[in-house]
Design a protein that fits this description.
Gyrase A, domain 2, 25% strand, 4 domains, Multidrug efflux transporter AcrB transmembrane fold, Alpha-Beta Plaits, alpha+beta, single chain, 48% helix, flat, 23 strands, 15 helices, four-stranded antiparallel sheet
Amino acid sequence: MVLNRYPWWKNLLVILITLIAFLYAAPNLFSTDPAVQITGVNASIPVNENTLGAIKDALTENSIPYKQIQFENNKFLVRFNTTDDQLKAKDHLQPVLGNNYLVALNLAPATPEWLKALNAVPMKLGLDLRGGVHFLLQVDVDSVLKQRMEGDLNNVSQALRSEHIRYSDLARQGSDTVVLQFRNADELTQANAFLSSHFYDFLWTQDPRNNLSLVGTLSPAALQLARQDTLEQAMNTLRNRVNELGVSEAVVQQQGGSRIVVDLPGIQDTTQAKNILGKTATLEFHMVDSEHDPRNALGGIAPAGDKLFSYNNEPILLKNEIVLRGSSITSATSGFGDDGRPSVNVRLGGGGESLFTRVTAESIGKPMAVVYVEVKSTPKIVDGKSTIDYVTEQRVISVATIQSALGNNFQITGLANAEESRTLALLLRAGALPAPVTIIEEREVGPSLGKQNIDKGVLSVEVGFILVVIFMAFYYNLLGIIADIALGMNLVLIVAILSLLGATLTLPGIAGIVLTVGMAVDANVLIFERIREEIRNGVGIQASINAGYERAVMTIIDANVTTLIVAIVLFSLGSGTVKNFAVTLTIGLFTSMFTSIIGTRAIVNAIYGAKPVKKISIGI
């Protein structure tokens, strides 16, 4: 057997992987352009040649120079040379295009088209590198649990009645417990057997302090599932709202049991983002009570089944029954009604349409009101503890007389201005949050600070890389230079894989790369020292090279596996920034194994393999 010689296919594989790595790492060499992104508020709004003409005319009339206008993924991307031109363009384009279009600020990669055609795109940069805004949202999960328990109370009550099982009292205790009172033990026994076999989420037990009391407590698994479902629904809604803002590369992820992190890299209009993300708003449709005089209820006592509101500074009575909820709305676009005032065109499809159609058919000629419901939160500190006050605000935004039975499409009018109609349409399209949320932390990172972080991060990688390169070349001569080549290839592979995966690089991620640079040469140090040892023991050059690689492999694998375990634990238990460190570290472990073992041996084989060698340049 010929020692230290790879078959042709393995050499070809190493070359192909190297070329592909360079290809997919190349987009990161190009900078970004300040840009504005123009999209329709939904898929029904056309983004076409007419839109393009309006964009060009607006830019030309206001003497705003631009580099390029691109159309992709049903949106226009206008690139500029400076941030000043970008900001001016947004201010002039939004009024021209109107409320049916979203004009969002962004930073667009200047990747050549031929690389884009190969799906070669640059790494996503996190908030600390690109600049933008970071929000930490507190989700009031307990409010959802209370609503669920209210629903469970009704379900338990109806189920017992249908089974003709009598009870004397049914009440909620806390946020996860139902308490039933009975007149005799037989009724309690029947109820316990029935409820235990039909309401699996509850643990049913007899109260030891009261023999005629049955207590149902939500199981820990059901509580955890309810909390997780609430957070996931909130994250989905927030992602929809982020998409409506036109932000690319946004991060929406869970933190702990009741918080959500939203990072919007590249965002420069933080006011709109804060206004949209934190709103827990929806609509309710109520019939107006025309039979009672609302002025008689100004003392605070409304007729049974009614609630007193104010509309246009006048009192109005609305019936408590909700004819339609905002959750039934699948599409909403802002516009102007026949009277020229702002309006929202609504399309239904989320359930509840049949009740809405029936009630409106039975109420032709009667007024119906649209109530805007918003939960506002205020963080405060009481007795040294951080708490949040939630206040539900309801206001009537529209009252109209029903002219005919309303179907799946209708219009909401009576809005104050175009901005209110656009915001309301956006919130209705994105969906209502399942629970009130509070922005408890807001942090902005300017683009200049992000650039400083990038420069410092790149400098740290360069310094670490140069120091390792000098040491290896000085201490191991030619084999040290080969290890340096592999180290450079390792960096290229890490960048290429991060780009292919669409992973987001943050400052801790750069720290993981720096650590990888230091660890990457460990494998080659082990291999080269083994080769030196074999040569000192009088073993031939070819046999020493073979032994150095073959016998050091298991030690290298053991060392990397222990580090990999730590990286997995960090990824599983850590927050977003710690996870990014773990991701780059994990990728670096695998790429360093490839470059230091397979890559360096391919080069060593090409130089020394399969031929008589009397001396090797390894610094002995």
